[in-house]
Design brief:
It is a single chain. The chain is α+β, with helices and mostly antiparallel strands. It has a single domain, classed as Aminopeptidase (3-Layer(aba) Sandwich). The chain is built from three helices and four strands. The chain has a four-stranded antiparallel β-sheet with strand order 1-2-3-4. Helix 1 crosses helix 2. The chain is flat.
């Protein structure tokens, strides 16, 4: 697995799917929709990520090969304000495979 900073527009746009998928289950469980909770990350838009990037937020992706399975947003100069999105099933599966290989 690798962690890479995401700074170009195309990579930001590709990250939207990772973020949405990571938060979709919780949004569904709580009945959140784009209408009643538009700021929930399950409904993030490429434009919103680009806007945050322009305000100094730094983004990092977690990759398994070419597939992005995680995403972190860090506010510049505010280490307490961070956002994490991970496709946990894929991450757990990957880690489980590593443990099996090394056990």
């Amino acid at each position: 697995m690798t962690i890479e900073e995401i700074s170009d527009t195309n990579a930001l746009r590709r990250s939207v799917a990772t973020v949405r998928e990571a938060f979709a289950e919780v949004a569904t469980e709580f009945g959140l929709t784009r209408e009643n909770c538009p700021t929930n990350p399950a409904f993030i838009t490429p434009e919103r990520l680009e806007s945050l990037h322009e305000k100094g937020v730094r983004f990092f992706g977690l990759y398994k090969g070419e597939e992005q399975i995680g995403f972190v947003a860090l506010e510049a100069n505010h280490t307490k304000d961070r956002r994490l999105a991970a496709q946990f099933e894929k991450l757990y599966s990957y880690l489980d495979n590593i443990l099996r290989i090394h056990s």
